[in-house]
Amino acid sequence: MSEQKIHKGECEGEALVVELESAEPNTVFERPRRIILTLATGFALLILGLFLSLITGIFPISYAEVLEVLFSSNPNPTLVEVVFQIRMPLALDMLLLGGCLAVSGTLLQLRTANQFASPTLTGLMPGAMVGLCVVLLLGMDIDSFGSMALCIAGAVLGGFIVFTLNKIQFIRGRSAGVHLFMIGFIIDVFLRSTFGFIMLLGEYGEYQQEWAISQGGWGIREGSFTFWLALLTILVVVSVFAFPKQLSPLYIPFAIVLTAVTVWACGTIGYIGLIVPYFMRCMIGNRPRLLILGSILWGGGLLMLAKVISAKINEPVGLPVTPVLACIGVPFLIFMVWREWKRFDC
């Protein structure tokens, strides 16, 4: 005999009530099963992205050869060098960068209770980009930590502008999510135009690395940035895991530092900090510990897959990863805006 089932779930920080007609008890996922399925799928996505990263590159390597390198006791020395010294570090860099951006977006959404809060739409990422481009404009002879500090300062400035303007109700009669989206989009365009102008004035010369990184996803900073990025990620993750409620006032400062360091490392990478946290919160709810774990898995796996696709599109040069992510991110963002607009009008 059919009956109505009401399934309540948390998504975007508020309760959603979904009416399911003629539903059998086993057809509705309970929250624990859905959480396990989400995390398991994220782990599978990460493993897939890592494996594809190891076989993708100028030097062709087959699936069997990668398995030989990973599990054989006497692998080909050339293949070992390519896999472990070139491709594995790059894949782990993508894992860290994607995880940092996803965690940053998750912290912003948890703190602001706004599904549009992301490193880009809160001004953190474009602000950090302006800070990095100051190195080019002024020809500053500073080390990596100096340029990192400029990225953090720029992220603070960008976030301050967006959050300050968001308190002013320029757009009345609309939800907080759409309001933040519009303000963030305007400031993002303004700051991107600013660092584009800075790029025209800058003298590259000795600063080729900053120039390549400032183009957004074309390069990754050389040196020991991976160590510092990993250390920072571990500190943030462990802190939130241990004290999720006590450290909630620090979520935005954590997000600022994570975003700034990511921009310092490889330039702007869009959409991951928006779509992954939104999806995680819809599937998991507002559980900081599980959200952080899921964000690392999905963010890292998604960025690795995007890097593989971008490398395949225009071999051997490749493309920046942001245009590839835009193929998913732009439709997803349009859906979010439409859904929020429709919900508020109802």
UniProtKB/TrEMBL annotation:
GO process terms (BP): siderophore-iron import into cell
Molecular function as annotated in GO: transmembrane transporter activity
Keyword line: Cell membrane, Membrane, Transmembrane, Transmembrane helix, Transport
TM ranges: 35-64, 120-139, 145-165, 177-201, 225-243, 250-278, 290-310, 317-338
Main location: membrane
GO cellular component: plasma membrane
Membrane topology: Multi-pass membrane protein
Subcellular location field: Cell membrane
InterPro entries: ABC_BtuC-like (IPR037294), ABC_transptr_permease_BtuC (IPR000522)
Highest taxon of source: Bacteria
Matches recorded under SUPFAM superfamilies: ABC transporter involved in vitamin B12 uptake, BtuC
Similarity comment: family membership: Belongs to the binding-protein-dependent transport system permease family. FecCD subfamily.
Name of the protein in its database record: ABC transporter permease
